[in-house]
Amino acid sequence: MAAVIFDLDGTLVDSAPDIHAALNLTLAEEAAPPLTLPQVVSFIGNGVPVLIERVMRARGEPADAARHKDLHDRFMRHYNADPATLTTLYPGVEACLRGLSASGWQIGLCTNKPQGPSREILGSFGLLELFAVVIGGDSLSVKKPDPAPLRAAAAAFAAGPVLYVGDSEVDAATAAAAGLPFALFTEGYRKTPAQDLPHQALFSHFDALPALLQGLARS
Ligand SMILES: O=C(O)COP(=O)(O)O
Ligand SMILES: [Mg+2]
Q1: Confidence band (pLDDT; 50, 70, 90) for 82?
Q2: So where does Mg(2+) get bound (predicted)?
Q3: Backbone φ, ψ for residue 141 (5° rounding)
Q4: What is the Å distance from ligand 1's center to 94 Cα?
Q5: Please, which pLDDT band fits residue 19 given cuts at 50, 70 and 90?
Q6: Is residue 184 over pLDDT 90?
Q7: Residue 1 has what pLDDT?
Q8: ipTM value of the model?
């Protein structure tokens, strides 16, 4: 039985608009100027604590634990209140996931986003029940690119090939560290040229993914 584990932000979903909205609600509370969507996209990938560090750096603020906690907690209140309204599935994602499930693939999620909003986003699209395991940024004491979260997701599956699908430098590094074949989705939040990231396959639309996964599972 083959299994495929997916990253979430920038891979299955374009979640930046909701993250952007929650960050700007947080900044508006202190009459601070808003961030642009491209700025916020560039901050996503390493989980919420790093997202907030990057916001503070972009605003020229010095590192400060109390300030970081205040921004983090206020952001999470806004984000948890509304994580899915502006979030969209990338084209072909639903058909791809349902097709993989129907043809016997086991499916998992490994994301640096906390489990709560991750589950809520998948649930809002009616897709949560397709996932046999959900590992979020708060599931373990470490986040991707540490391989532990991906290994924890892979451990949910019985013997057989386990593949990973993601969009970013973090995902490529995590797959390499975990020793899993990696399919890179090229339309997400990546900042590095795809050819400079370790990967076993590339794809720009989810219609192409099932055939790629079949090939990787046989290799
Ligand atoms: O929450 C993030 O920073 C990114 O999450 P991801 O691991 O789903 O890309
Ligand atoms: Mg991602």
Answers
A1: very high
A2: 7, 9, 167
A3: -80, -5
A4: 19
A5: very high
A6: yes
A7: 79
A8: 0.97
7 is known to lie in a ligand binding site: yes
Give the atom of ligand 1 at the shortest distance from the alpha carbon of 19: 1
Ligand 2 being an ion, which residues bring their Cβ within 5 A of it? 7, 9-10, 167-168
Which among 31, 41, 116, 128 is positioned nearest to 76, based on CA atoms?
Answer: 116
- In the 8-state DSSP scheme, what is residue 112? S
Minimum CA distance residue for ligand 1 atom 9: 9
Q: Is the dihedral of CA 179, 152, 51, 168 positive or negative?
A: positive
Q: CATH number of the domain at 3-14+87-218, out of 3.40.50.1000, 3.40.50.2300, 3.40.50.10260, 3.40.30.10?
A: 3.40.50.1000
State the Rg of the chain over Cα.
17
Chain-centroid distance, C-alpha 80: 16
- Calculate how far, in angstroms, residue 6's C-alpha sits from the geometric centre of ligand 2: 9
Nearest to 6 by CA among 88, 100, 76: 100
Q: What's residue 159's pLDDT?
A: 84
Distance from residue 51's CA to the centre of ligand 1 (Å) = 10
What does the pLDDT read at residue 158?
86
